[in-house]
Structures are given as structure tokens and as C-alpha cells.
């Protein structure tokens, strides 16, 4: 027992004598990996699937890393993803057009183990979680009225409705993983610059969504707005729900249109980051007496 305590004390002393803390800031761009179907493009000639990942886009990170010795350390990072637009629905048919995109606006965190192969090359491997944010869908729809619809509203044939709305999707608490391989170049004792390739493996299961903006105008054939705000957020069209809840199971006789089956959406990505590191002074070596 006494021998074990001595060994543990020696290990603690050796790590404490080296202990170094550093902080870093970086920015980069990621492309989707393992892209899944996100939507469709439809024309009079047919329908085509569109694939991607909401993890694609610009990202920034702040990290703190504590090294116990020359090789091993623990890393905690906070990041923000400003996702690129992904096609959800693109329809171009006679009298009917839709342009719907979705994009991620997400905050995340990761805890990783860091291993230095040498002074310059290192690797990270750890767990990744999403702390907050949303997947934002932005939709434009144009629908030409039939003769009966035009007569009912009191506008000439060739008039159309023009709808714009925004719907925010929120997900359940996810858990993924992160892996990175980087190269660090020291500038002086305290500062270094680095570049790294980073992989995120994570998917989000939808929890709920909410329409946050909605407006429908009636437009004449010459482009003049005849009726502004025919439908708004406070006066949604019949069959349109302001909020939707996503569940794993629905009864066969379900009539509640505000509930839908849950789906998983991909956030996985592969990116390149560039940044700067600031190293605090190492703990002074302790002399045994």
C-alpha cells in the first residue's frame, strides 16, 4: 500500500512539474460527409434527389488544452457553426414554383484527448455534443390561381399568391464524436499557429419546429400587389400548423396534423481549420528533498 502511494505521488509530481495550459482560437470551413437525402428538385422533366449535410459551412472554435506531459493532454472546445444553404425543395412547374432551403445555426462543445507525436504534429479524439441552435428553413412559394380561385378573391386570371415563411427546427440532445489531425508551427515561446483537418460524426433527431415568420400576398399579373398579408403568422391558412412535434410513433387513426414522425438529419462534416495558440508558462519544476 505504501509503495502504491509513493508511485502515485511520483506520477503526480512529474505531471505537475510539466503541466502546461494553452488556449487557441480558430476558424475554418467544413463540407458535408456521408451526405443523406435532404430534399428534392422537381421540374416538368422529372424529380431529382438532393443530398447533403447541415454540418457544411463556416465554423469558429475556442479551445483550452491542458497537457500533463510532453505527449498527452485534455482539450475542451466551444464552437459555432454557420451552416451553408441546403436544398430542401426546388419546384419549377407551370403555375407553381417553390424554393425552400435550410441551414444550420448551431453551438456545440467537445471534450477530447490530445496526443502529440512530436513538437509539431498532434491528434485529437473525443466526444461532441450540440449545446443549442436550430436548423432554419426559408421557403418561397408562388402559386397561380385557377379561374375559380381568382373569381373568389376578385382578381383577374393570371394573378397568383406569393408566400414567404421561416420555420425553425430543434433537435433532441445528440452525442457524436470528433477526430482531428493537426500541424503546429511555433512562432515564439508563447505563440504558435496551426492548421488541422477535422472530422465531425453526428446526427440530430428532430424534436419540434415552429413557424416564426409567415406572409402571403396576392399579386396581379403585372406584378402589382393587390392584397398584402392575406395570410400572416397570426392568420395561417387552414391546415398549416404554427408548431409541430416529432414523435417516434403515431396511431393509425391519427388526425392531429401537428404531430409527425421524427427523422434524423445529418450534421457530419470534414473540415479544415486555421488558428493561433497562446501557451501559458509551464509550471516550474519541483525539486525533491
Automatic annotation (TrEMBL):
<dbReference type="Pfam" id="PF13505">
    <property type="entry name" value="OMP_b-brl"/>
</dbReference>
<feature type="domain" description="Outer membrane protein beta-barrel">
    <location>
        <begin position="9"/>
        <end position="219"/>
    </location>
</feature>
<protein>
    <recommendedName>
        <fullName>Outer membrane protein beta-barrel domain-containing protein</fullName>
    </recommendedName>
</protein>
<dbReference type="InterPro" id="IPR027385">
    <property type="entry name" value="Beta-barrel_OMP"/>
</dbReference>
<keyword id="KW-0732">Signal</keyword>
<feature type="signal peptide">
    <location>
        <begin position="1"/>
        <end position="19"/>
    </location>
</feature>
<dbReference type="InterPro" id="IPR011250">
    <property type="entry name" value="OMP/PagP_B-barrel"/>
</dbReference>
Amino acid at each position: 500500500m505504501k509503495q502504491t502511494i509513493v508511485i502515485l505521488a511520483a506520477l503526480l509530481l512529474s505531471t505537475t512539474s510539466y503541466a502546461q495550459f494553452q488556449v487557441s482560437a480558430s476558424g475554418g470551413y467544413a463540407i458535408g460527409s456521408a451526405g443523406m437525402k435532404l430534399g428534392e428538385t422537381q421540374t416538368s422533366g422529372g424529380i431529382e434527389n438532393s443530398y447533403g449535410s447541415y454540418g457544411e459551412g463556416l465554423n469558429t472554435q475556442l479551445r483550452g488544452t491542458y497537457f500533463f506531459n510532453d505527449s498527452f493532454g485534455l482539450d475542451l472546445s466551444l464552437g459555432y457553426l454557420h451552416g451553408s444553404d441546403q436544398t430542401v425543395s426546388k419546384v419549377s412547374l407551370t403555375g407553381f414554383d417553390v424554393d425552400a432551403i435550410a441551414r444550420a445555426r448551431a453551438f456545440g462543445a467537445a471534450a477530447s484527448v490530445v496526443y502529440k507525436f512530436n513538437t509539431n504534429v498532434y491528434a485529437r479524439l473525443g466526444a461532441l455534443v450540440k449545446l443549442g441552435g436550430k436548423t432554419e428553413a426559408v421557403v418561397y412559394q408562388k402559386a397561380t390561381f385557377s379561374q375559380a380561385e381568382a373569381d373568389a378573391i376578385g382578381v383577374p386570371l393570371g394573378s397568383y399568391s406569393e408566400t414567404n415563411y421561416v420555420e425553425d427546427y430543434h433537435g433532441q440532445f445528440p452525442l457524436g464524436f470528433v477526430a482531428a489531425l493537426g500541424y503546429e508551427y511555433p512562432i515564439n515561446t508563447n505563440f504558435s499557429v496551426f492548421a488541422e483537418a477535422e472530422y465531425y460524426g453526428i446526427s440530430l433527431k428532430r424534436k419540434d419546429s415552429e413557424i416564426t415568420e409567415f406572409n402571403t400576398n396576392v399579386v396581379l399579373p403585372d406584378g402589382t400587389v393587390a392584397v398584402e398579408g392575406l395570410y400572416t403568422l397570426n392568420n395561417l391558412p387552414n391546415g398549416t400548423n404554427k408548431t409541430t412535434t416529432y414523435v417516434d410513433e403515431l396511431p393509425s387513426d391519427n388526425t392531429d396534423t401537428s404531430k409527425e414522425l421524427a427523422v434524423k438529419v445529418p450534421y457530419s462534416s470534414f473540415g479544415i481549420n486555421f488558428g493561433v495558440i497562446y501557451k501559458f508558462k509551464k509550471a516550474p519544476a519541483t525539486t525533491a528533498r
